[in-house]
């Protein structure tokens, strides 16, 4: 085994060093580390094969080019749907035994992507450019595919920054990911992944720049990470719509420990792509600062999936809108009024279920409200336990904020724990609201 510097493989002081990097990775498979020295390197998409080890020295920096046509179509999953999308900036595809380590910085150079989305998203409802039309041809069913807000209707399917697809035994350690064009870290259909001491930073106002989206994957460990982003912080997903239900590929056996999330829409999140379900999730010893929601489970009719055996403990939060939300009336993705009806609807394969959730030793200060838990009348939430918690709300006007993104449920100015269609036990928990809990079954 012999390590080699990337500078040994060619002149990397060029406008796009991707061909040199990809060649080096193939040549060094199973032979040693490819080391990136303390310098800036411009590149487009990188494909990491099996038995690879990329190591970034302190001061190393990969800067990804922001040309839309530099990331050609690959078959992957985009917002919960298996389809063609732009090549991820870093792609671990059907690869095994991969390591990315070191204190370097990987910069997705996302501003051009964000500006384009802001400019086009407000009015554009169909493919317009040649790139968008080419994806529409590759994804002929795109109009009927569910969306999560990223802009599927335009077929401008932005690249994930670091994606792991149908791969196993991956270690990510010590580096930073910043300025992602879209979702930042996204394992799909993968297993045995460890993410340790990784920083993910995107400006808060940027569109759909989730920190981590762990999707239809198993045996995942996330520890000692910092996530500061413009959408959900650390999120679990499992596919969307009928396709996701048919795939039957749940996210399970996930451990998240000692992580810090700042500003994001949610600290720890499940959903809203819930089609294949979740089980055996353990979140502990985390801190959330200024996140819109803290602990957040979001789904609705049509999303499907069984969400069960979730434990969240020893979490500290400051300045959230709401520290605990479990919402089966999540409003994005469809305008079908039946999905948000307060009357019982037929139970089908696309009816989600939530059960066996334990939330304990949570301390939240200066939130806008204490909790929101809403199940479906035909599928109430079962066996939620909230114990040994302290939930302190401020004295702000509750009419000036949205506790959770629900539709169909009447709004309320109540600031305690609001519970609808759910079996919830609250033990040894303080809420500075009178009454502390309000059942609205």
Structural commentary:
With 441 residues, this protein is mostly beta strands. It has four helices and 36 strands. The chain has helices spanning 18-27, 111-121, 130-138, 241-247, and strands at 4-5, 34-36, 40-43, 46-47, 52-56, 61-64, 73-78, 81-86, 90-93, 96-102, 105-107, 162-165, 168-173, 176-178, 185-188, 191-196, 199-201, 212-215, 218-223, 226-228, 232-237, 251-257, 260-262, 266-271, 278-289, 293-298, 306-318, 322-327, 353-367, 371-374, 381-387, 390-393, 417-420, 422-427, 430-431, 437-439. The strands form three sheets. It has a 22-stranded parallel beta sheet that branches. A hairpin with a 2-residue loop joins β7 and β8. The termini are far apart.
Give a brief description.
The protein has 4 helices and 36 strands. The protein is mostly beta strands.
SSE map:
Elements: E1 4-5, H1 18-27, E2 34-36, E3 40-43, E4 46-47, E5 52-56, E6 61-64, E7 73-78, E8 81-86, E9 90-93, E10 96-102, E11 105-107, H2 111-121, H3 130-138, E12 162-165, E13 168-173, E14 176-178, E15 185-188, E16 191-196, E17 199-201, E18 212-215, E19 218-223, E20 226-228, E21 232-237, H4 241-247, E22 251-257, E23 260-262, E24 266-271, E25 278-289, E26 293-298, E27 306-318, E28 322-327, E29 353-367, E30 371-374, E31 381-387, E32 390-393, E33 417-420, E34 422-427, E35 430-431, E36 437-439
Parallel strand pairs: 1-2, 2-5, 3-6, 4-9, 5-10, 6-11, 9-12, 10-13, 11-14, 12-15, 13-16, 14-17, 15-18, 16-19, 17-20, 18-21, 19-22, 20-23, 21-24, 22-25, 23-25, 24-26, 25-27, 26-28, 27-29, 28-30, 29-31, 29-32, 30-33, 31-34, 32-35, 33-36
Antiparallel strand pairs: 7-8
């Amino acid at each position: 085994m012999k390590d080699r510097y990337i500078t040994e493989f060619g002149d990397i002081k060029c406008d796009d060093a991707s061909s040199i990097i990809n060649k080096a990775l193939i040549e060094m498979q199973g032979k040693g580390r490819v080391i990136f020295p303390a310098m800036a390197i411009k590149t487009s998409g990188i494909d990491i094969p099996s038995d690879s080890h990329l190591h970034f020295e302190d001061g190393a920096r990969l800067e990804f080019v922001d040309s839309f046509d530099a990331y050609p179509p690959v078959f992957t999953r985009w917002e919960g749907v298996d389809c063609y999308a732009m090549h991820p900036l870093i792609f671990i595809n059907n690869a095994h035994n991969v390591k990315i380590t070191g204190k370097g910085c990987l910069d997705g150079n996302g501003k051009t992507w964000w500006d384009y989305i802001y400019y086009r998203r407000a009015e554009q409802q169909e493919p317009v450019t040649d790139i968008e039309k080419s994806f529409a041809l590759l994804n002929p069913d795109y109009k009927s595919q569910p969306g999560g807000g990223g802009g599927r209707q335009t077929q401008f399917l932005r690249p994930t920054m670091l994606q792991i697809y149908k791969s196993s035994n991956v270690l990510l350690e010590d580096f930073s990911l910043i300025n992602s064009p879209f979702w930042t870290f996204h394992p799909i259909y993968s297993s045995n992944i460890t993410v340790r001491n990784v920083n993910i930073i995107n400006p808060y106002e940027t569109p759909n720049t989730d920190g981590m989206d762990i999707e239809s994957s198993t045996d995942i460990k996330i520890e000692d990470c910092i996530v500061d982003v413009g959408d959900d912080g650390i999120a679990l997903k499992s596919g969307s719509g009928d396709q996701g239900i048919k795939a039957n590929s749940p996210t399970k056996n996930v451990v998240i420990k000692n992580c810090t999330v700042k500003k994001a829409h949610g600290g720890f999140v499940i959903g809203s792509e819930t089609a294949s379900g979740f089980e055996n999730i353990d979140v502990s010893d985390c801190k959330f600062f200024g996140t819109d929601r803290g602990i957040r489970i979001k789904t609705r009719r049509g999303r499907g999936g069984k969400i069960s055996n979730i434990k969240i403990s020893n979490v500290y939060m400051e300045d959230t809108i709401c520290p605990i939300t479990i919402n089966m009336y999540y409003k994005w993705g469809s305008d079908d009024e039946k999905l948000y009806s307060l009357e019982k609807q037929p139970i089908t394969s696309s009816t989600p279920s939530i059960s066996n959730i334990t939330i304990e030793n949570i301390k939240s200060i200066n939130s806008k409200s204490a909790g929101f838990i809403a199940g479906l009348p035909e599928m109430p939430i079962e066996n939620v336990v909230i114990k040994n918690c302290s939930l302190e709300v401020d004295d702000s006007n509750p009419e000036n904020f949205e506790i959770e993104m629900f539709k169909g449920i009447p709004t309320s100015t109540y600031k305690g724990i609001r519970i609808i269609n759910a079996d919830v036990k609250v033990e040894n928990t303080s809420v500075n609201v009178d009454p502390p809990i309000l059942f609205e079954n």
